[in-house]
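User: quick one, fold this
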Amino acid sequence: MKPAAWHIAFIAVMVLYFTGMALQNDTLQFFFKPLLVSTLLGMFISETAGVASPFKKWIAGALVCSVAGDTLLMFANNNERYFILGLVAFLIAHVFYILCFHFIKVKASIPGKWYAAIIVGVYYFFMMSFLLPHLGALKIPVLVYGIVISFMLLLAMLLYDLPDQVAARTILTGAIFFVVSDSVLAINKFYHPAAWGGWAIMSTYVLAQWLLTRGMIRYIRQEERL
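Assistant:
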């Protein structure tokens, strides 16, 4: 499929999925949820075809693991094991994002920033302190997941110094929305479910994945021109 076709497919899937949410139609949601990131993967592969970049495999891996995580979490209400497996899938997805952002940081010779580490550390400390009394048997997995996604956010913040500011801001905004989505999911699951929780989780998640994909497509294509 051509890039334009993948864009249309993504928009169509997104509209159908959120229609399923609005109608509380489990069949529509079940069918289209795994296709949300699948169409982004198709878009990424299509728009970076022919570009030799070492970063392509990390983003492809992150998107594939995200599709696996989306699929596994659909069964989480019936069996807690699926929630743990979904958590592991997304943890691996974040590891792929971390590796990608780290190698970009090294290639661009971007230094670390103490204030960025403090901002992320404060977020992690307060979020985990709030959730800790409610985590039960999932305390260790959630604490580890929190460390991983916080590190992903930190690296995305460091990439703000990339020469291509559009790519840098797109990637950072995507990382922020990912953290927001996962934070709302954790509060919704472990503390208190809200009626609007599902909408907040999925809208920020879809936006996060789209922004990360678009940012990396732009970065990889700009890299080819250098």
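User: anything notable?
Assistant: The chain has one domain: 3-225.
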